[in-house]
Design goal:
Strand order of the largest sheet: 5-4-18-17-16-6-7
Radius of gyration: 25 Å
CATH class of the largest domain: Alpha Beta
Number of strands: 30
Number of helices: 23
Protein name: Molybdopterin-dependent oxidoreductase
Shape: globular
CATH architecture of the largest domain: 3-Layer(aba) Sandwich
Keywords: 4Fe-4S, Iron, Iron-sulfur, Metal-binding
Bound molecules: iron/sulfur cluster
Largest sheet: 7 strands, mixed
CATH topology of the largest domain: Rossmann fold
Region (Disordered): 542-579, 725-747
Distance between the termini: 52 Å
GO molecular function: 4 iron, 4 sulfur cluster binding; metal ion binding; molybdopterin cofactor binding; NADH dehydrogenase activity
Domain 4Fe-4S Mo/W bis-MGD-type: 9-64
Strand content: 15-25%
């Protein structure tokens, strides 16, 4: 009996390739391309998309993307088209040569927060099993590792939001710290609008009056790098006014006395002097937060991207705990993850110190479990390696060859000029990407890989909701998936098995590797993800207890993680329903109690002085995404956001002598960037803002400070000292004097 081929579905339900909201969308085939069609059934965005998501198919077109491998020709020094076999062999040879000459740790691997769970898992396994190197980390280290560390310290478990976004409109007050949702994930703004429609209060903490801050009932604009003091000052007022929740503190927390004492040393007038936020505003914010029957604290990159990011997030968590706003319905602390798979990407093994399932690499039981799944000796697994910036800083010195997937550190790393130099100094660099990014331009081998709409895989959004992205069309001829790249390289390096190319098969292995760990995916299958609107982890296999039950887990910044947290197993063979809300019965610490962590204010790593008297803070704009490798290829987005700029207050502009649209030079101890001035009263007079999406003369990360948080190893993107100058004529941003990559042209 013959079977007619099944008709192609009219449209394929999937998710956006960009940010951590992971908006649902339908993709409808139109010839050889796809177009985005509204998908109203996905609850997170309910059909709404920002311009980036709506235009994402433009990057699928062959006009802007790589469609065949490139290998740098030894004679011409140019990247020339090559066959896949040649490119893979050159890559395997480059990695093998560095290892033979300098040892396994001379080979580095750098991943990305946009990689699917399957790719992140396979990349971590490839580094540790095939290359035997400890030197792997990823750009998600730049995104929210301080919040991850603070979550681990306080709650014993790191998941961005411990509750679904649908809870936000039903709390009484949201204290939003260092997040500009209106530009970074516009469809999420409706949760705040609905909060206000329901009578709730919105307090926004941001040095700039952003589009999100404009929605606030109360906007606090502290000097960048001082929100740790701000949180302590609010906690001081809460204590002084007798608004703490003593029963919650007594029953569900530890460490209060020391944390309380630290807060009492930050009295309002002192906090006003440190932050620039007036005492009346502090009092109003503390009152609004405490008057609400339930409240939430939501943080993002603002408090995290500091050399004291873990303590800063910890201070905001302390405020939530002291007021009883944690571990109960419609209240809590959460972090708004940034990158598309920022959450899942840090759970499955591409982070320097972690194994799949959010297990710790230095935990003998965790090593034994994962080594068992991988079929290797636990003793063969390397230990923890360097964090992202430290790895980039070691290139060309200790680390001589690098395999890089889904990241563009020439634009996105702090002190980017230095990082670019380190990349150039490598003996060998291979980059897998969809376009010829600024980092790929430096590579010895460029491997063109498939994109989100061309392959199936899972991501985990900011709520901890695991989602299925479905393949809607085939990649162009000459393009392979990242899993195929790893399969090919592993084969050439002597591992013919263990690196399947089918994402579902990889996910099956990931489930086993994560089973019993803090981020337990064992009960999640592609079939469930097709039938449900995502599944929240932890989701153990049927009959098994909730997360951390094996006692083998642990998240960054914690000594241990064990015990369930109200997530319990079904115990009856029924599929586990997943865990939308964490910590309702207990926190994931050994004693089930949340931990206050004693924190005190300290200065940014680079305070302003007479030579560099202004603070630079960096961030994003709505029409571009991260390093812009994809979004800068979309005409519509470039029309909306054509290039970098320097936002500064009219008083500062007058002092420097620049007018709206004129070029202004921003100079830090690490370099100089030039971009048009955008004069605005929406920013403090002592602060300038630059978006970081662009390379070249206006590259914001030329200026940023790589000072690292001691726990999370996250760089201080949000604060550095600069001075402003009127640029010389040759520094017109339209005609940069120093082209980005003059000596390594591409063929
Ligand atoms: Fe995509 Fe984020 Fe925009 Fe949603 S908000 S469409 S996930 S970039």
């Amino acid at each position: 009996m013959s079977h007619a081929p099944a008709p192609a579905p009219a449209s394929v339900p999937t998710h956006c390739p960009y940010c951590a909201l992971q908006c649902g969308m339908n993709l409808r085939r139109s010839g050889q391309t796809v177009e985005v069609v509204d998908r109203d059934d996905f609850p997170v965005n309910r059909g709404a998309l920002c311009g980036k998501g709506r235009t994402a198919p433009a990057v699928l077109s062959s006009r802007v993307r790589l469609t065949g491998p490139l290998v740098r020709h030894p004679a011409t020094g140019r990247l020339e088209p090559a066959a896949w076999e040649e490119a893979l062999r050159a890559t395997a040879d480059g990695l093998r040569r560095a290892r033979a000459r300098h040892g396994a740790d001379a080979v580095g691997v750098f991943g990305g927060g946009g990689l699917t769970n399957e790719k992140a898992y396979a990349l971590g396994k490839f580094a540790r099993v095939v290359l035997g190197t400890s030197q792997i980390d990823y750009n998600g280290r730049f995104c929210m590792s301080s919040a991850a560390a603070a979550h681990g310290r306080a709650f014993g478990l790191d998941r961005g939001l411990p509750f679904p976004l649908e809870d936000v409109p039903h709390t009484g007050c949201v204290l939003l710290v260092g997040s500009n949702l209106a530009e970074t994930m516009p469809p999420a703004l409706r949760y705040l609008t609905e909060l206000k429609d329901n009578g709730g209060t919105l307090i926004v903490v941001d040095p700039r009056r952003t589009k999100t801050a404009e929605q606030a009932d109360l906007h606090l604009a502290p000097r960048p790098g001082t929100d740790l003091a701000l949180a302590l000052g609010l906690l001081h007022l809460v204590v002084a006014q007798g608004r703490t929740d003593e029963e919650f503190i007594r029953e569900r927390t530890t460490g209060w006395e020391d944390a309380r004492a630290a807060a009492m040393a930050h009295w309002p007038e002192l906090v006003e002097r440190i932050t620039g936020v007036g005492v009346p505003q502090l009092r109003a914010a503390a009152a609004a937060f405490c008057d609400a029957p339930n409240a939430m604290v939501l943080t993002a990159r603002g408090p995290e991207q500091q050399s004291k990011g873990t303590d800063t997030v910890g201070a905001w968590i302390n405020l939530a705990l002291a007021t009883g706003n944690a571990g109960r319905p419609l209240a809590g602390y959460g972090c708004l993850t940034g990158q598309g798979n920022g959450q899942g990407g840090r759970e499955h093994g591409q982070k320097a110190d972690q194994l799949p399932g959010y297990r710790r690499l230095d935990d003998p039981l965790a090593r034994a479990h994962v080594a068992g799944v991988w079929g290797v000796d636990p003793d063969s697994l390397p230990g923890p390696g360097r964090s992202a910036y430290e790895l980039l800083d070691a290139l060309g010195r200790d680390v001589r060859a690098l395999l890089l997937m889904g990241s563009n550190p020439v634009v996105s790393a702090p002190r980017a000029g230095h990082v670019e130099g380190r990349l150039r100094s490598l003996d060998f660099l291979a980059v897998a990407d969809v376009v010829l990014s600024e980092t790929a331009e430096l590579a010895d081998v460029v491997l063109p890989v498939a994109q989100w709409a061309e392959e199936t895989g899972t991501t985990t959004n900011l709520e901890g909701r695991v989602l299925l992205r479905r393949r809607a069309l085939a990649p162009p001829p000459g393009v392979r998936s990242d899993l195929e790249v790893l399969h090919g390289l592993a084969g050439l390096l002597g591992y013919g098995k263990g690196f399947p190319t089918d994402p579902e098969e990889v996910f099956g292995e990931l489930r086993r590797a994560s089973s019993g760990g803090p981020a337990d995916y064992a009960g999640i299958s592609y079939r469930r993800l097709e039938e449900e609107q995502g599944v929240f982890w932890p989701c153990p296999e049927p009959g098994r207890a909730g997360q951390g039950a094996s006692g083998t887990g642990g998240t960054e910044g914690t000594e241990e993680t064990e015990g369930a947290s109200g997530t319990g197993g079904t115990g009856c063979g029924e599929p586990h329903p997943g865990t939308p809300r964490l910590f309702l019965d207990r926190f994931a610490t050994p004693d089930g109690r949340a931990r206050f962590v004693t924190v005190v204010h300290r200065e940014a790593a680079e305070p302003t002085d007479a030579e560099y008297p202004v603070v630079l803070t960096t961030g994003r704009v709505v029409a571009q995404y991260q390093s812009g490798a994809q979004t800068r290829r979309v005409d519509e987005l470039n029309e909306a956001a054509p290039g970098p700029f320097v936002q500064l207050h009219p008083q500062l502009a007058a002092r420097v002598g620049v007018a709206e649209g004129e070029a202004v030079a921003v100079v830090s101890r690490r370099g100089r960037a030039v971009a048009p001035a955008r004069v605005s009263e929406a920013i403090r007079p002592d602060t300038v803002f630059m978006p970081f999406h662009w390379p070249g003369a206006g590259r914001a990360n030329t200026l940023t400070n790589p000072a690292l948080d001691p726990t999370s190893r996250m760089p201080e993107f949000k604060v550095c000292a600069v001075r402003l100058e009127r640029p010389e004529h040759r520094e017109d941003p339209a005609h940069p004097a120093h082209p980005a990559h003059p000596e390594r042209a591409t063929g």
